[in-house]
Specification:
Blueprint (H helix, E strand, L loop, with lengths): L2 H28 L4 H4 L13 H14 L20 H30 L10 H20 L7 H9 L2 H10 L3 H10 L2 H17 L1
Helix pairs in contact: 1-3, 1-4, 1-5, 4-5, 4-6, 5-9, 6-7
Length: 206
């Protein structure tokens, strides 16, 4: 990507990840666990959620070089002992993150459609380009995070809805989750699931 694309993409990514993590914190607080709120994570302030390597260095290097790097933000701490129904509620906390990104994508898509008539001759503007980029990135974040691989949100959602014995097997995979993700990425398996769904939803929203 050129710097003209990298800079707005990075700003939108940071804002979207902050919204994503704040949604986890909000859901946990609503379901009985105030841990994240007490630690200052129930906020849209990026400083509370940014990880220097996972949220800054890896995304920037990946955008500018095209290398397949998987980034991350600071995980929101959740004490399941405070949740009303630990397994079910933890799955709902995990689901809140991707849902928040779909909400952002929908909002950006609606704004883009509403403002389409204001753009002369269908020409692109900085605002419309940013909104289209927000749709693309937020749909991508939602779809990727819903993959049923721990430590992604999809893995946590899956662990909350399957029988206890299966959930324990998923937890045993958790320490190797990033290695598994990179293996799936490098083997092209993720391309079979993530990009087709992302393109379908992104096109529909745009």
């Amino acid at each position: 990507m050129s710097l003209q694309v990298v800079i707005p993409a990075f700003i939108i990514l940071i804002a979207s990840l902050s919204f994503h993590e704040a949604a986890h914190a909000w859901a946990a607080d609503r379901l009985g666990d105030p841990t994240a709120r007490r630690l200052g994570r129930l906020t849209l302030n990026p400083i509370a959620h940014v990880d220097l390597i996972g949220t800054v260095i890896f995304p920037l290097v990946g955008m500018m070089s095209g290398l397949p790097l998987i980034g991350w933000a600071k995980p929101v701490p959740v004490d399941v002992r405070n949740l009303h129904a630990p397994r079910r509620d933890f799955a709902m906390v995990a689901l809140a993150g991707p849902v928040s990104n779909l909400v952002l994508a929908l909002g950006a898509g609606l704004l883009l459609k509403a403002g389409g008539g204001l753009v002369p001759d269908g020409g692109a503007t900085t605002l419309t380009s940013a909104l289209a980029l927000a749709v693309f990135l937020n749909v991508l974040l939602a779809v990727f995070n819903l993959l049923p691989v721990p430590p992604l949100d999809g893995g946590n959602v899956l662990a909350g809805i399957v029988p206890e014995a299966v959930a324990q097997m998923i937890d045993r995979v958790r320490p190797y989750g990033f290695f598994l993700l990179y293996a799936l990425l490098l083997l092209g398996v993720l391309d079979l699931f993530v990009w087709p769904i992302q393109r379908f939803l992104g096109t529909w929203l745009l």
